[in-house]
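Internal tracking record. Fields below are filled automatically when a chain is submitted to the structure queue. Please do not edit lines marked as system-generated. If the sequence contains nonstandard residues, flag them in the REMARKS field before resubmitting.
Queue: standard
Priority: normal
Entity type: single polypeptide chain
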Amino acid sequence: MTARALTKRALCLTVACLVAAPPTGATAQTQMMAGFDPYNPFGSAAQILWQRIQQQCPQLKLPVTIGIASRPVTREAFTTDQGNNIMQQIRAAFSNIPGITMAPWLDIDPIKGIVDTGVLDNPLAGDNKEQLSKIQLEVRASGYKVGAATRFNLSAHGWNGYESCSPSLDPFPVSQDFIGEEYSSTDELFNKVAAGVWAASVDTGNPMTLSVRMLSGLPVSPGWQEFFSDKLRRALSKQNAEEKETKIRAERHVQLVIAHDPASPEDKRWDGMVTVDPRPLGYRISVSVNRRNTTPVSEDGLVTLDELPTMQQWAALGPEAHTPRLDQTPMRINARIEGGRALQQYPFLVAQESYVEVDIPTASVRGPHPAVPVDVLGRNNAQMKTIHIANPSRPNLRRYKLGPGEYTIRVASAGPVAQDFQLRARAVDTKDMLMPEAPGRLLRRFQDWYASVSEDPRTGQRTCYAYTAAQEAGPRYWREQAPFILLQASSAGVGNGDLQHLIEDKRYYKPNTPFEAVIREGGGMVRRLNAAPTAAGNFIRPTKQGSNGQPILDMDAVAGYNRGTTLEIQGTATDGRPAHVIYSLQGYRAAVNAMSLECGRRDLANALVWK
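SYSTEM-GENERATED OUTPUT FOLLOWS
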């Protein structure tokens, strides 16, 4: 199964690496370069540029010392995190080419910018000035965005007597996966659309309709029409208030209506459409507004699951009620259970044999009892058997393996006092596995890795995460949720600052049986990871023996992630069958860097990424 998931703070000597330069002839199609691989864009582009350097600069002698230079980034093009992510990939691509030696800094701009100030002459500056004198080529990356399209180019610029050597590449396309997909808010999307509509409206007669559809064609969740309509009304009202304040020109007004008046002029009618595409950890929202003889105004972006409203009622019970069908996108309902012997029941449907998860997160419970009795009932109200391993941190979690048909979720009172709660339920075909839910609030997706953060509202303490779910796990029907790697750290100055690093749940493996974890690198290289089940707790961690004889986190082994492509685990399932898990390491560097930036932990970035 394929797993698909910061602040604008920059590292002390690092700025983002791209120029938000407007494209030349942006509408023209760019010819694909020979040898360019869209599945390895920066790696293949680095190889092509290196070939051109060798052809056009015969005066260079191996090894060639290269420095990576960054350029400031504007918010309209790429975030700081995305710039850092791309800069890391470009540096890694060149460092893997034989005959190239990399300058010791990720970004040479801050270093070369203070050469003339005398700071580098200070003995405390080490050999920075000497290292600068060894650089023969500076590689620059520039990029621009046009809608969802992104293009980059790489160029080399000679230094220290090689100034005539300056080959470059034509712009090449890069998938958003390699840049780092950012989670935004619905407010941001609708504010941008409203600004575009306002700019294109010429007088007060601008009626607008809005409809909502699911990309899959499934019915739209109840309440979404009013939710998106309210977002658009607020965004248009904001534009109106800003125009009144600035008084740039005569006031305009765009009014959201239920349906167009047939007598109104067609060239003044706006038609809006919101398209929702469910993703494992959120939704892609596309907002498009059109008017005749006018360029459409559109915005799209990823939002987290919690951005869209929960269902206020699941489905009315009765013979004509529509029974909702569960899929991998959680259905959620905010509800209350009265005290005493009260019950709430919610029907649902699965279309094929599925893993079904039902949960009431303890953070959502408002009442004296965090544990709320929740079960799934089948035909004749028979209670279904759960298959999950009990987790004390999620006492209301239940998972089932259910055949096609209709079922009912039953929530019972936990005591004599009423309690409010949020019920969540989702399902996935048993040929797949449920994706783990995001810890905290999602920030970015970098290829196969995600970065997220949570914050304690009382203390302000932040906990930051970098994680990925397994791309493959076997044997079949071994487990209902995909295994995951999780790195977790607290914000700077909080507690002991330890990094928590979990790579598997030991409860799925037979005790006292062999366990092996290896990192596979390019060219068939294999690096063994010191990983074993811990004596306490449920997880497997990469550890080694410390000076006091106790297990400590093996930072050297973890640093091996930087050169690896996959992490593979082999062991024995509890029923004796051979078990294996394969994680992708694509995006690890960027996600860990983002985690470190978010919590102000440059020490982690230094240890886990730049090492």
